[in-house]
């Protein structure tokens, strides 16, 4: 008597192959560009500058305590480590 242990493996592999083929099929034969047109329209309406961000930058530049000393210390340590390597 001969026992074939790969009988179920062939069925599983065949089922997976047909499932992958089903996933790769396009949903329709027609492609629409409505979404990309809406995205392009939105991008055209984005302002070149953000006034709130510009004002925040101006406020930070005028602040003598910016950046904090701890941040400057950490950056200097990182730069020193990079110089050694």
Short description:
This protein is mainly α.
Keywords:
85 residues; mainly alpha; 4 helices; 0% strand; flat
What is the gyration radius calculated from CA atoms?
30 Å
N- and C-termini, Cα separation: 69 Å
Count of DSSP strands: 0
Query: Unreliable segments (pLDDT under 50, ≥5 consecutive)?
Result: none
* Helical content class: 55-70%
Q: With helices defined by DSSP (H or I, 4 residues minimum), what is the helix count?
A: 4
> How are helices and strands ordered from N to C?
HHHH
Relative strand content: under 5%
What coarse outline follows from CA principal-axis ratios? Answer: flat
The secondary-structure class comes to mainly alpha
| Largest β sheet strand count, sense and barrel closure | none
Output mean pLDDT.
77
């Amino acid at each position: 008597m001969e026992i074939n242990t790969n009988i179920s493996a062939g069925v599983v592999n065949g089922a997976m192959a047909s499932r992958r083929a089903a996933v790769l099929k396009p949903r329709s034969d027609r492609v629409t560009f409505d979404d990309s047109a809406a995205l392009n329209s939105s991008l055209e309406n984005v302002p070149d500058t953000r006034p709130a961000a510009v004002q925040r930058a101006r406020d930070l530049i005028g602040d003598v305590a910016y950046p904090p000393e701890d941040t400057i210390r950490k950056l200097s340590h990182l730069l020193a480590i990079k110089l050694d390597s």
